[in-house]
TrEMBL record:
PROSITE patterns: ABC_TM1F, ABC_TRANSPORTER_1, ABC_TRANSPORTER_2. Residues 1-251 form the ABC transmembrane type-1 domain. It is a multi-pass membrane protein. One of its GO terms (molecular function) is ATP binding. It comes from Lactobacillus melliventris. SMART domains: AAA. This is ABC transporter ATP-binding protein. Its main location: membrane. The chain crosses the membrane at residues 12-31, 91-121, 194-216.
Length: 492
């Protein structure tokens, strides 16, 4: 016959168990919410910081940078952020179990802990191999992303030349290398975990033997031994989980180091102030430039007056593009000075944002025509239309409007339309000093002629690099110079 007290005790214990399970479930829910919140903050803050860091200006393929902000940051999220939270959970479990075990018997718990801690050397033993395999995987992903970028951009050319079989071989090789690198990384992590497991479980049997001897010698009650043994098993499992988390965190360390080395862009680059500059002339005084013991430009002097149209010619590889970068202060001369003289005669150092630019490859965004002109800055429709009219872009605006989205890289625009967008952008931003580096090289002769007529008839100050200027246009330039064998010389 079951007594009423026993029934109450059973009901109480069941309710207590249900309550504990409920509390643990709720705690797990809040744990996951906290984890998700921190992952959200990581994604938001790190990616936002990258937008305004020197990461965007670092040399290297765009595909490598895209690989970093997708695959590599996801790896940091999974192998660092999540594992840090898992590590905290394991440490809390370890401390709770440790309190229970110490309460049963301090000496035997100390013995269990001493042997269990030895297993913690496993992540340190494998740390270098784990980091090396992670770096190799990250590099292989970058190569694969680069291949896919080229493959998707140039698929029509590949098909035109019947080169698909060769690209399939190249692509399959990149895929195989990436998959193999990931497999090696995972196997290295698994080996580290295996080593930690072997150490943890094998060493845990030695304290059990010591505990049995304590019981036989009547130095330890059997109940205390059982409590320490079970608690220590949980401790061993917690230490093993900590070791696994440390191994996984080690795999993210190369990427964390890369993140730590990324610096914020200077405040001047983050300013939204509208830069306009009035000047009388730009002077290069006895400028020389070179790198790695190789001289590219030697003792070059040049004065560009306000409104001048300067033509710069010379064979490829002679340093013409370098000369434009020196003018804009993107790079600095090894010798001599580059000065912008204001109307009052004051000489200042030119800054890159004083200049408009038109290059061979147009900078066109996958956005509206309005955005491609304004770059997000607030201009009135009248200002935009005036710049469009100056650049001869009215037919395009009438055809597609200001708020139609232009396709990626401007594939739905002609070459001339792309150049006119860049020129209209310079007009809109009042960049009255235009640097043109082979800006019309990719255009057909008629379109190139029209663009030149537009530029040469404007009030812009222009320095242009070009090899194929027709004779009727050459006469419209103020002066022509040739850069040859490191020397800059006046032609006409």
């Amino acid at each position: 016959m079951v007594e009423a007290g026993d029934k109450r005790r059973v009901v109480l214990e069941v309710c207590l168990i249900v309550l504990v399970i409920f509390l643990l479930t709720v705690a797990r829910y809040f744990y996951e919410r906290t984890l998700n919140r921190n992952i959200y903050l990581f994604n938001k803050n790190v990616r936002s910081d990258l937008l305004s860091s020197d990461f965007v200006k670092q040399k290297g393929p765009v595909s490598d940078k895209l690989s970093f902000v997708t695959n590599d940051l996801e790896l940091v999220e999974n192998n660092y952020v999540k594992e840090v939270f898992n590590l905290i959970t394991c440490v809390v479990n370890l401390l709770l179990c440790l309190v229970m075990a110490i309460n049963a018997n301090f000496i035997l718990t100390f013995v269990f802990m001493l042997f269990s801690i030895i297993s913690a050397i496993a992540p340190e033993i494998m740390a270098k191999r784990v980091m090396e395999s992670s770096r190799a995987w990250s590099a292989s992903v970058g190569k694969y992303t680069g291949f896919m970028s080229d493959y998707l951009k140039h698929i029509d050319l590949i098909l035109h030349y019947n080169a698909m079989p060769f690209f399939l071989l190249k692509g399959n090789k990149a895929i195989t290398e990436t998959a193999a690198a990931k497999q090696k990384r995972e196997n290295t992590i698994a080996m580290s975990n295996l080593l930690a497991g072997i150490l943890a479980y094998s060493l845990s049997f030695l304290p059990i033997g010591i505990g049995i001897l304590f019981v036989l010698d009547k130095r330890l009650p059997l109940s205390s031994f059982i409590m320490v043994q079970y608690s220590s098993s949980w401790i061993v499992n917690s230490i093993l989980a900590i070791n696994q988390s440390m191994t996984t965190i080690n795999s993210a360390k190369p990427l964390l180091t890369k993140l730590a080395n990324i610096k914020e862009l200077p405040q001047s680059a983050l300013s939204d102030e509208m830069t306009t500059i009035d000047f009388k002339d730009l002077q290069l005084n006895d400028v020389s430039f070179g790198y790695q013991n190789k001289t590219i430009i030697q003792n070059a002097s040049l004065t560009v007056n306000r409104g001048d149209k300067i033509l710069l010619t010379g064979r490829s590889g002679q340093g013409k593009s370098t000369l434009l970068k020196l003018m804009a202060n993107i790079i600095h001369p090894n010798k001599g000075t580059v000065e912008l003289v204001e109307p009052d005669g004051k000489a200042i150092t030119p800054q890159p944002d004083y200049f408009g630019e038109v290059n061979q490859d147009s900078n066109i965004f996958h956005d509206t025509l309005r955005f491609n002109l304004t770059l997000g800055r607030n201009f009135s429709d009248q200002e935009i239309e005036r710049a469009i009219q100056k650049a001869g872009l009215t037919p395009l605006m009438q055809k597609i409007g200001l708020d139609t989205v232009i396709k990626e890289d401007g594939t739905n625009l002609s070459g001339g339309e792309k150049k006119r967008i860049e020129i209209a952008r310079a007009f809109l931003y009042n960049r009255n000093f235009l640097l043109i580096d082979e800006g019309t090289a990719s255009l057909d002769p008629q379109t190139a002629h029209e663009i030149h007529e537009l530029i040469l008839s404007s009030n812009l100050t222009v320095v242009e690099i070009d090899h194929h200027i027709p004779e009727d246009l050459q006469s419209k330039f103020t002066r022509s110079y040739k850069l040859e064998d490191k020397k800059l010389s006046l032609i006409s």
